[in-house]
Structures are given as C-alpha cells and as structure tokens.
Design a protein that fits this description.
Layout: H1 10-18, H2 24-36, H3 38-59, E1 65-67, H4 69-77, E2 82-87, E3 92-95, E4 103-109, E5 118-124, E6 131-134, E7 145-149, H5 152-155, E8 161-171, E9 174-185
Parallel strand pairs: 2-4, 3-9
Antiparallel strand pairs: 1-7, 4-7, 5-6, 5-8, 8-9
Length: 224
C-alpha cells in the first residue's frame, strides 16, 4: 500500500477515496495515515481537484466520451436532462438539441459478439478529411449497443452538418467495421422529447467530497 519514503501510493489513495477494492483494514490504515501526513493529504487534495475538474467539464458538455447504460441512468436519476437518439447499424437520424438539454446520448445498436477491443472513429462534414479516433472504448456485448456522448456544448453552437461514427473491432489482422452511423444535425430548438422525464434539478453536487482537517476529524469518503 505504501510508496517510497513512507507515503501512500496513488493507487492506495484512489482506492480509499473511491472505496474501491480496499478492505476495511486498509481503509482504516489510510484513515490513520492521512490524519498524520500532510504530504499525502495534499496529494489526495490534488486528486480530488482533478476529479472535480473533469466532472465539471463533463457536466458542462465540454467532453465527449463513450460510457455505459448504468452511468446514463444514474445521471438521469440525478436530474440531468438527457436527449437520446437510437440508431441501428448502417442507419441515420435527424437530430437537434434544445437549449435546456444537459447531455446528448447516442445509442448505437451493434452486434458485439466476439469483439475484444472496440475503437470509434468520428468524422464531421464541417472538417472533411479529419478523423478523431477513440481507442479501446468501453462496451458490454450483452446490451447490443454502444453509448456515445458527444460534446453537447459544441453541438449547440454548430450549423447544420452530418456527423459520422464508425465502430471498429480491432483484431490481430487489423480493424473490422462493425457499425456505421450518421447524425444529421439541424440547429434550432428541438422538440420536447416525450420519452424523457423532466424531474426538477437537485441542489448541490452529488457525491462531492468535502475537505476536513486531518487533525480535527477524519476525512469523509463518498463516491464521485
């Protein structure tokens, strides 16, 4: 668990903060160490700040990612306004976003049996010849879909264009296309999504970790 010079490793700090893959004894040991070691406390504060920054950028729609259905469901339960489009392999969809949409969810239907590594290549008619490749994206073959979240902040500012996403199964002999999807974006106010619940926003930042003095009380732990 310990790194050089008696300090905790980054892995140990992350496991403690996320309460992931750490036994009760390990959690207790890290608690005691953090109460006495300012250097490790500062290292943990830096990790927390980094996580907060990434989370804020994601919630602001400044990051694109491939994620899981469980993650999207959790965001919806927290009051995040989702606009979702489902596209079959080889298909296309006319799409737009509303000003109050928080997240744009693209559900790409695809057969993933036998796929071990999946890459996604994104191209736009606004930048012909330019490809953005996401390597080794997460997927669950049992769901039959890949969930891609584009940068909604950028989408809201774009003129009419077509975005194409190609999914590639990366194998020993090279890459094999398993699905291609076209999104025909049109600017302007999107129609309300009848399938999307409209819960009220919750105040505060769920899962946010608050700093407490190491010498006065133990640190609190919550999942980000």
């Amino acid at each position: 668990m310990s790194a050089a010079a008696g300090h905790l490793s980054v892995d140990a700090l992350l496991a403690w903060w996320l309460h992931d893959e750490a036994s009760a004894a390990e959690v207790e040991a890290v608690d005691e160490h953090l109460m006495q070691c300012d250097a490790c406390g500062r290292a943990l504060d830096e990790l927390v700040a980094l996580g907060d920054g990434v989370r804020a950028a994601f919630r602001a729609g400044a990051l694109a990612s491939v994620t899981t259905a469980a993650f999207v469901q959790r965001l919806g339960a927290q009051g995040v306004r989702l606009r979702e489009y489902r596209v079959s392999a080889g298909g296309s969809v006319e799409c737009s976003v509303a000003p109050d949409d928080d997240l744009l969810v693209s559900r790409l239907e695809v057969a993933l049996g036998g796929v071990r590594r999946l890459d996604a290549v994104v191209t736009s008619s606004l930048a012909p010849g330019v490809e953005h490749r996401l390597e080794d994206v997460p997927f669950d073959a049992g769901t039959g879909e890949v969930i891609w979240l584009p940068k909604i902040a950028a989408v809201k500012l774009e003129p009419a264009n077509t975005l194409q996403v190609t999914l590639l199964s990366v194998e020993k002999g090279g890459a094999r296309e398993v699905g291609r999807y076209a999104f025909h974006h049109r600017p302007g106010r999107a129609e309300p999504d009848p399938l999307r619940p409209r819960p009220g926003r919750r105040s505060g930042s769920p899962g946010r970790w608050r700093h407490r003095s190491r010498r006065r009380s133990r640190r609190r732990r919550r999942r980000p």
